[in-house]
Amino acid sequence: MARKSGSSGEKTAIAVREAAIRLIAQHGFAAVSMRQIAREVGVQAGALYLYTPDKQSLLFDILKSHMEDLLSSWQDEAPGSDMAPEARLERFVRFHIRYHISRQDRVFISYMELRNLSPDNFVEIERLRRLYEDVLGEILSDGAAKGVFVMEDIRVTTMAMIAMLTGVSTWFREGGRLGPDDIAAHYISMSLRLAGAHVPMLAVAE
Questions:
Q1: Which domain holds residue 137?
Q2: How far apart (Å, rounded) are the C-alpha atoms in residues 96 and 166?
Q3: Which of 48, 84, 133, 152 has its Cα between 20 and 30 A from that of 159?
Q4: Is 164 within 8 Å of 103 (Cβ atoms)?
Q5: pLDDT (tens digit per residue) in 141-195
Q6: Given its phi and psi angles, is residue 62 left (phi above 0), alpha (psi -120 to 50 degrees) or beta?
Q7: Complete DSSP assignment for 75-133
């Protein structure tokens, strides 16, 4: 996204993105106008173009920033390849759950608004998504090679597991019966089972 120079310009650019995220998550990309975003930020509609060329560029920036931050955040926590596959899968699941439930609007937009990207922008976001999917795929492949995971199709299992984990962001609410750590523990158990590992059943919290 093009940004006006200076600290004030940077703050406004961030405010534009955050306003767009809130409005798109609530109303959908097609229903949100640049004028609405400008009004939410508190600037004139014409001033918005100092920070983004158009609405398509704004959407692409939101999705690209989300994926790049996801990949960068994982790299900060990624275990070494010498760690057991089961432990690496546990690390991935905990990371994915924690990251996604703290960014519910961004996650919603990243999945629901892909269809509104231009073809070139779609290709770039899909490339970034595949990089993240490959992180899990490599963990599962390593586990299968070492005989601790048993799957009929690693790619299908990868996609099913990511869909399952990401789905938490659609229903998780702070103050619910289970906290993030409790949810992660259950999803670790389910993920290990989906990968074909033997794990004991967890006690269900009341």
A1: 60-194
A2: 8
A3: 84
A4: no
A5: 999 999 999 999 999 999 999 999 999 988 888 877 888 899 999 999 999 999 9
A6: alpha
A7: HHHPPPTTS-HHHHHHHHHHHHHHHHHT-HHHHHHHHHSGGGS-HHHHHHHHHHHHHHH
